[in-house]
Each structure stands twice: as structure tokens, then as C-alpha cells.
Amino acid sequence: MRLRDLSYRVKTPLSVTLVILLTAIVLSTVLLARAYQDNREEMIDNALGLGTVLARTLSPALTRDDVWQAYETIMTPLERESRVAGEAAGGPAADNGVAGNDVAQREILVLDTQQAIYVASQPRRYPMLVQLAQIGTEYEALAERIASHNGSEPFVARDIWPDRYAMVVPVLAEDGARLGTLVLNYSNDLLLPRFLNTVEQVILATLLVLLALLPLGWFWGKRLTDPLAHLSACMRRVGSEVPSDIQCDLYDGRDEIGQVSMRFRRMLDELREKQELERSMVASERLAAVGRLTAGIAHEINNPLGGMLNAISTYKRHGAERDPGADRTISLLERGLVQIKGTVGALLVEARLESHALTPEDLQDIRTLVQPDIQRKGLHLVWDNAIDVPLALPSSQVRQVLLNLLLNAVQASEAGGEVVCSLRADDAFFRAAVSNGGEHISRERMAHLFEPFAQSGGNGHGLGLWVTYQLIQQLDGRIEVKSNESATIFEVTLPLSDGDSA
What are the structural domain ranges in the chain? Predict the structure, then answer.
């Protein structure tokens, strides 16, 4: 996998980590370079200070021409520094070779006024009375530098040796006359112990800082990219899920991610509106299909239906002596035919059928009509009817609503299950609730539950609930559906007119 293909939740913290590491390396390098420079300047300053003290001490010896005193004078500080270095190294200097090494790193030469060697810390290498220019090329350059510097102030020759520094201090008499020249030749190796100690301290401090900053940088880098990752996850859901199901808690800010989140939120809203518009268009197309269908069937059903109702009316007016049981049957048939007429009227959404007020007998008829289906499927009907007076509602429409809901509940229930019908009324509303323990209605089906021809699975043409919905809309009521794993409940609320009872 290429680096650019990694998630920003990885790339951003990784970039922050690399920046912290690079910054730590650069700062450490700068600090070490500065420390090395400071150590070098400190060594030169110490050497010049030592040279100034030695020059004052050598002045009497050079005045009296006392070579041994001059030699002891220049060797005293070297021996003391060698002893200190040996103790720091873990033992006496003479035992571990520190003295010889220290002498090689620090060379002290005393020159007379003619630049001949008067005394040196390494007599064998720098014999007495040998001209400084005759020792080697570098010393020849040093001799020229000393000759060109006629002042009484010390100076440092930095560029003669690549790995050494020469501190030159004039030796003056009390009257200011020049008695000779003191040369302290120090190797760069003298800086190594202190520099390594500084390196160790800088590395330790850098590691401690990195231990604190790296987790913090990774945490903040990840936190900065979390809104972007969350936005990306939400955007991936577009296309695979319907917009109404996409709920995202997006980052709200004025930066670039916040602006993109705001645009994405607007896009989701527009997609939801588009989804609702498409759903309305589909419903309108289905309604148009139903309209074309009902226009054809209304004539075919209403004509014979009217004839049958007229025949029943004639029979009731002119019939001979009738059996009471036959009268009840004829009455039940008449109400059933009126209900069919109401169903046809419901298919014609604009129709407003007139019927008598809803009575307790109408509600009892519904129980009687649904009872055969209940028994056929082996169900138990719980009939909870608390209405005992007529209500100012059209009986045909209410009977059709309740019958459709009960038949749907019977169809959805499994054998041996239970169907519950609860009927209540107060001064303002008629309330009915029909529940069953059948299959749970999914969210996808719930969204199209009251659309015509939208039924999936089972028997039926999908018009029952749509007709129910149209009837409830005609009555200015509302219907709500609640479905879970244990039960599905249809709740209907219908407003009563001013004259709520007859």
C-alpha cells in the first residue's frame, strides 16, 4: 500500500510524529554544535588565562635565565591537570597512561626573543635553542604569525593546525620589555570528554521530550482527523442506504472540514426531499392507476348493487309474513351491500357517502362478520367494546375501516394467536386499536404501508390499507402503526362532530 493511499487518520498523526522527530533532531544538532563551540571557546579562554598566569610566573626565570625554574613552572599545571584527569579516569595518572596522553594533547613552549626554544614541556621533541621555524611547516607559519604580532596582548592561532589551537602569550618584564613568548598548543581531543558528556545529556533530554510529545502529537493528530474520518464514513453510506436512514453527528465548525460537513448536511437534506418527492410521485402514479381502475369498476358494481338494494327494499315493504331470523339475515345482507357501496365510494376518493350514525349494532355486526375468519384460523378474538350509544360518525366508513384492520390482523396472525380490538369514545374522539402478534413489519414495508398495490408477500391486492387510509382521511382522522417483535398495533383516532350522539 502506498503512503498516499493511507487514511488521514494515520497520515496526519504520522506526519505530526515525523515533524516532531525532525524538529528534535535539528534542535539537538544545533544544541550540540553550540555546545561544541562553547566548549572550544571555554578551552581557549582557560588556556589564555593559564598562559597569562604562566607568563607572569616565567618573567623572573627568564630575567635570571633560570631554565630549570622555567621548566618547573610550565610543568606544574600540566602535572596537576594530568593527576586530576587520572583520578577522574579511575586511578593514578601514571598507572593508566593518562599523563603521557595528556602531555601529548597539551604542549607548552617558551621562546626567547629570537624565537628559539628556551624550554618546552616535551624536551625531546622540541630541543633547546632550536629555532621554532625549523621544527616544521606549521611551526614556521606560527613563527611568522608571532613575528608579525608585535603587540603585548595574547592572541590565538586557529588556522595553522586542523586539529589544534595555539595560544600565544607574550612574556613581559616589569618595565614592559618583551622577554620571550609563551605558546600553549592544545589538541581538539581535549574537548572530546566534555563534548561526549554534553551529547549524553542532550540525547537524554531529547528522549524525555520525545516520550512526552510523540504520544501527545499522535493523539492530537488523530483527534484533528476524526471529524474528517467520520464525514468520510457518512459519505460512503450515500448510495448504499436511503437518505432518510443516514443519521450522522457531523463536526460543526467554521474551518474547511466544518464547511464541507455543512455542505454534506445540506446535500442529505436535499436527497431526503428528493426521496420524499419521488415517493409522492410514485404514490400519485398509483393513485392515478387506482382512479382509472375505479372509474371502470364503479359503473360495473354500482348498477347491480343498486338493483340488489332496491330488491331488498321492495321485499321488506311488500313481502309476506316473514320469519324473524330471515329478517335479521335480510338486514345483515342490506348492511353488507351498503358497506360494499361504501367501499366503491372509498375507491372514488372524492366521493362523500351519506350514511346513518354509527351505532353499537354496527360495531356488533363487525364482530359477527369477522368471527368466521377468526374460527377458521383458530384464533382468539378479544373484543373490548366500551361504546353503548350512537356516535356522530358515518357508519359505512367506520365499519369498513374496522373490518379492514381486523381482517388484516387475522391474516397476519399465526394459528392459535390472538387478535385484540379495543373501542373507546369520549366527548371529542372515537378511538380504536387493533393488534395482533404476527410478523414484525420492517421499516422498509412501513414506509409504503398505506400505498395502493404496495403489499409484498401474502394474499391480497394491497388496497385494503390504502382504502382504510383514504376513509380515515375523509373523516379528518389519523392512523398510527407501532410494530415490534411481540405485536403490531394499528391505532385510529376519529373526531366527533358537534352532535356527538343521537
Answer: 3-199, 354-502
Whole-number Å distance between alpha carbons of 171 and 184? 13
Edge-to-edge strands of the sheet including 380-385? 380-385, 418-425, 429-436, 488-495, 478-483
Q: What is the CA radius of gyration of the chain?
A: 55
* Cα–Cα dist 207/219, whole Å: 18
Burial of 423 (0-12, 13-18, 19+ CB in 10 A): buried
The C-alpha atoms of residue 408 and residue 404 are separated, in whole angstroms, by 6
Residues in the chain: 502
Enter the pTM of the model.
0.48
224-243 pLDDT tens trace: 778 777 777 788 778 777 77
> For residues 301 and 287, what is the distance between their CA atoms, to the nearest angstrom?
20
- Supply φ then ψ for residue 175, to 5 degrees: -90, 5
Domain at 3-199, CATH class: alpha beta
Do 404 and 468 touch, CB atoms closer than 8 A? yes
List of the chain residues with pLDDT < 50:
93-100, 349-351, 456-459, 499-502
DSSP lists the bridge partners of residue 494 as 430
Q: What angle do CA 272, 276, 278 make, to 5 degrees?
A: 115
Contact criterion met (CB below 8 Å) for 479 and 498: no
- CATH code of the region 354-502: 3.30.565.10
